[in-house]
């Protein structure tokens, strides 16, 4: 029997100055609209920013 395990982390909120440069390419139409889909590089960069601000792991 296989059991799936998920690790959740509580992280500090990111300041806009940290995440906005990562997702800047997703803004269009004079900064008023945003495409929510992230590419792999954006997702990895955001995860690394959150990983550096972990408060507590939850199992």
UniProtKB/TrEMBL annotation:
Domain of life: Eukaryota
Parts forming coiled coils: none
An annotated GO BP: response to endoplasmic reticulum stress
Domain DCD: 1-52
InterPro entries in the cross-refs: Dev_and_cell_death_domain (IPR013989), NRP-like (IPR044832)
Designated name of the protein: DCD domain-containing protein
Species this protein is from: Solanum commersonii
